[in-house]
Design brief:
Blueprint (H helix, E strand, L loop, with lengths): L7 E8 L5 H11 L7 E8 L2 E8 L2 H4 L2 H4 L7 E7 L14 E5 L2 E11 L2 H10 L9 H15 L4 H9 L4 E9 L4 E5 L8 E4 L3 E5 L2 H6 L3 E5 L4 E6 L2 E7 L8 E2 L1 H6 L5 E2 L2 E2 H15 L6 E4 L4 H12 L7 E3 L12 H11 E3 L1 H4 L3 E6 L8 H10 L4 E6 L21 H4 L2 H8 L3 E4 L2 H7 L7 E2 L1 H4 L13 H4 L7
Parallel strand pairs: 14-23, 17-20, 20-21, 21-22
Antiparallel strand pairs: 1-4, 1-10, 2-3, 2-4, 5-6, 6-7, 7-8, 8-12, 9-10, 9-11, 12-13, 15-16, 18-19
Length: 476
């Protein structure tokens, strides 16, 4: 599919008086299923033991009632839903990673991508540590265990000492076998992480929508470079121990990744997307009869385009919620047919109309031609594509599956050629300036490296696939 995917969702919970941590983690992961659909896992602490269950598949597929019964009653646990950006989609790469060391065990869930993981892995291997996965997250968990052992089993110190060595993006939740829970966010703030509480305890999540769905009130975001220690349902310590010259949250969180009912670092995802649509209407006006969005993340930007342009908003597609994930089909033809089955154009709405079609992104250029062709088959007179992300020109190293730059359509051909290739009458991308203006309510600055090639973190000559390849493969 011509959609970007983000590596994962993380969640952690600590309750004061027992509780069903596994069930809370399950509900949280369901609410963040959009962030990762390849694998899911939950780990809970019960005294000095850790119980971890994980597998490939959707959250509801992995954790049926029989599986949930395997978890002991516990007040402390972490969960993870995965989409792979480093490491293949196999069970051994599904998180949380449980790492044993001389005096204990930890479980680690990670959202992001660490660009120096290969170097760290080589050093740890020289110390006698073994690895079975091809994921940077396994390296992080092993490094934390190693540092925790050297810190006399002090989990918070171990986490802090470990992450000081990491370069890249990481929002982490780490669970110790004694029930301690540590949450930490990299100093750039690439990936979101927030804290919530209720009368019974504290939770941390990639998105605030997970806190809402599990009955926790949003308290605040974990700050870039901050570590938070949670025990017995209370935050017992927090400190900002790492600094970066500039925060650099991934702006694609607002374009596509996050759920519209989430608030990330002070900015509503829904409001940001509506603002993107308004900016698109100002930058790329066109005479048309209706505006419609491509479900799901194009819908909010379409609202903004209609508001700003005065062109009526309509429903252009009917989405079938019962079609399975298209990437499970073995051939490209089957995958394409599944995409067509998911989105059916609404002929009664678009026939004879000049349509502004708002999409969140064009990555490799495989989905947009089918979407526009379907519109024309339904009788649309004209189709004007408007995109709420600027052209993708560069690799992402920090947790988004943009690999080889030469697979990116905008990196290979000019705007007018893209317009012809996808079959649109006109094509307009939001500018980087317009996008930043739409997201100006966020407390953090943004990483726009995939659009501009300017990264806030120096990546050097490193491949984002180095963990899986096993050797350096410099990007050209």
């Amino acid at each position: 599919m011509d959609k970007l995917h983000e590596e994962c969702a993380v969640f952690g919970v600590s309750m004061r008086e027992g509780g069903e941590a596994a069930g809370i983690c399950y509900n949280a992961l369901l609410s963040m299923q959009h962030r990762g659909q390849e694998g899911a896992g939950i780990a809970v602490a019960n005294g000095s033991t850790l119980t971890c269950v994980k597998d490939v598949g959707l959250v509801g597929e992995v954790f049926n009632p029989r599986v949930m019964e395997q978890f002991p009653r516990s007040g402390c646990g972490i969960g993870h839903a995965r989409y792979s950006t480093t490491g293949s989609n196999t069970l051994k790469n599904v998180q949380p990673f449980v790492t044993e060391y001389l005096t204990g065990r930890i479980a680690t869930a990670h959202n992001g991508n660490v660009v120096n993981a290969r170097e760290i892995k080589e050093k740890l291997t020289a110390f006698g540590l073994d690895f079975s996965a091809s994921s940077d997250s396994e390296v992080i968990s092993s490094l934390i265990a190693y540092k925790t052992l050297r810190a006399d089993n002090d989990l918070l110190t171990g986490v802090k000492e470990a992450v000081k060595l990491l370069v890249g993006a990481y929002s982490l939740v780490v669970l110790g076998s004694g029930g301690k829970l540590v949450a930490v966010r990299d100093p750039g703030g690439y990936r979101p992480l927030c804290i919530g509480q209720n009368d019974h305890g504290v939770a941390v999540a990639s998105e605030s929508c997970a806190l809402d769905s599990c009955g926790f009130s949003f308290v605040r975001d974990v700050q870039p470079g901050e570590a938070v220690l949670i025990e017995d349902g209370r935050v017992v310590h927090s400190e900002i121990f790492l600094k970066a010259p500039r925060q650099s949250m991934c702006i694609f969180e607002f374009i596509y990744f996050a759920r519209p009912d989430s608030v990330l670092d002070g900015l509503s995802v829904y409001e940001a997307r509506v603002n993107m649509g308004r900016a698109l209407a100002r930058e790329h006006p066109v005479e048309a009869d209706m505006v419609c969005g491509v479900p799901d993340s194009g819908l909010d930007a379409a609202i903004g385009y209609a508001m700003e342009s005065g062109i009526p908003l309509g429903t252009g597609f009917v989405k079938n919620p019962y079609i399975g994930r298209s990437f499970i089909f073995p051939t490209q033809e089957q995958r394409e047919n599944a995409v067509n089955m998911k989105l059916a154009p609404l002929r009664a709405a678009v026939e004879g109309k000049r349509v502004v079609l708002v999409e969140d992104s064009i990555v490799r250029g495989t989905t947009s031609p089918r979407t526009i062709a379907a519109m024309r088959r339904a009788g649309a007179k004209e189709v004007h594509m408007r995109v709420s992300a600027p052209p993708f020109l560069h690799t992402c190293y920090f947790g988004t599956d943009i690999g080889d730059e030469h697979t990116l359509l905008a990196n290979r051909i000019a705007l007018d050629a893209i317009c012809r290739k996808i079959g649109a009458d006109t094509l307009g991308y939001i500018s980087v300036e317009g996008l930043l203006g739409a997201c100006k309510g966020c407390r953090l600055d943004f990483c726009t490296g995939c659009f501009t090639g300017h990264y806030q973190t120096r990546v050097g000559q490193v491949s984002k696939n180095i963990m899986e390849a096993g050797s350096q493969n410099p990007q050209k």
